[in-house]
Amino acid sequence: MSDREFDVVVFGASGFVGRLTALYLAEHAPAGTKIALAGRSESKLARIRGELPAPAGEWPLIIADTNDAAALQEMAGRTRVVCTTVGPYLRYGEGLVAACADAGTDYVDLTGEVPFVRRCIDEFADRATASGARIVHSCGFDSVPSDLGAYVLHKKVQEDGAGELTGTTMVVRKLRGGVSGGTIDSMRVIAQQASDPAVRRVLGNPHALSTGPGERARVKRSEEPGDMALVDASKVDPGLSGTLAPFFMASHNTRIVRRSNALLDGAYGSDFHYGETMAVGRTPVVSTVVAGAVSAGTALFLGAMAIKPVRSVLDRILPKAGEGPNEQTREQGHFTTETYTTTTTGARYRSRFRAQGDPGYKATAVMLGESALSLALHRDALPERAGVLTPATAMGDVLVDRLRAAGVDLAVDRVG
To answer: Which segments does the entry list as coiled coil (predicted)?
Structure first.
């Protein structure tokens, strides 16, 4: 990799989140980091480059299209890392993953599409392992807080000699920001493909990313928390009260966390199971009503997205890919997640992941940018692992340290 022309190529740099990621790298990448911008339109890339701070003024432009295999292969061969924001990945992503897997090039994306990750595992894991490529999915708000929240819990419990993780639950404590147009577009594609029974089986399987041919689930499917269940907060931790609502991205994030545990050979614990929720108040009656409404509303929305005439109506009012909030809204956004666990020795721990900026936009650009820099600049410190990976298993402590240095509050403490 020492002879690669670039450290990082941002593919999709003229898109909304791609531009934010390029801006973050221009402002925060160490001096001397070799970065290029890539996409379909040279004129759009040149315009974006001209709007970026001075260090980006000399960044080369690469013209590549998701339908042009030769261009993707050439691009992948020129860089250590491809950082892509071009989704929905089910529609546009496979060709780039294939090019990176064959070229031994590390790859990071923002996918929240379980069927896409499953397809990449099946089609490209062996090729990536053979070439040494790290194919790392879900490096934004989906699913870095989830994945690293569980990872740092495991590390702290291990350091304390406090046993293994058992029931573990992430609680979204605070969330201010809009749903990204890219996420909505991914939901559209998944809804369209869900008419295929094979896709529905993947979507309904809590171990969709941690079991496959020759693999065995470590915990029974029935023991995994339901993605749409209401949860008594006191059962997550005695210090919590009220009823917790389902978190709308749990169906993806939980699969990523379970895959991390599988790739780490079950290091989190033989009885580790994981769920995600959202705090909607402490008062039992009020929080139960609100949590029920959130659950019903989420189910109704997902069901509506699967009905073509209804989806057509929603398409007129929902944000589209490439759209996003203004700078003030992005700056005012923030989120806090807390992940609770009880260990096999009865000890209780909590991790916290807190960041400023709209979760789906500014904060995601930070997480994606730092993921790309972790792979490009810290290769000697990374885990010796290749294939189709997760943020925790590909980058681990390197990403934790870089995010903390970037201002993310990522901490662990024992609570009982």
So the answer is: none
* Within-domain flag for 416: no
Confidence band of 314 (pLDDT split at 50, 70, 90): confident
Classified as helix, coil or strand, 174 is strand
Contact assessment for residue 48 and residue 14, using Cβ atoms and an 8 Å cutoff: yes
Q: Are strands 243-246 and 231-232 parallel, antiparallel or unpaired?
A: antiparallel
Residues 134 and 148 both lie in one domain: no
| pLDDT the model gives residue 215 | 65
- Name which of 29-43, 165-179, 381-395 the model is least confident about: 165-179
- What's the whole-model pTM score? 0.95
In angstroms, rounded to a whole number, what is the distance separating the alpha carbons of residues 75 and 66?
11
Instruction: Tell how strand 79-84 and strand 106-108 pair up.
Output: parallel
Same domain? 160 vs 20: no
Number of domains in the chain: 2
Query: What is the rounded CA–CA span in Å between residue 293 and residue 315?
Result: 23
Dig out the tokens for 348 from the structure.
Answer: 């209780």
89 is in which domain, residue-wise? 6-140+363-407
Q: Concatenated DSSP letters for 240-297?
A: --SEEEEPTTHHHHHHHHHHHHHHTTTTT-TT-EEEEEEE--SSHHHHHHHHHHHHHH
Q: Are 109 and 236 in the same domain?
A: no
Query: How many Å apart are CA 27 and CA 236, to the nearest integer?
Result: 40
Average pLDDT score, the chain: 93
CB 246 within 8 A of CB 298: yes
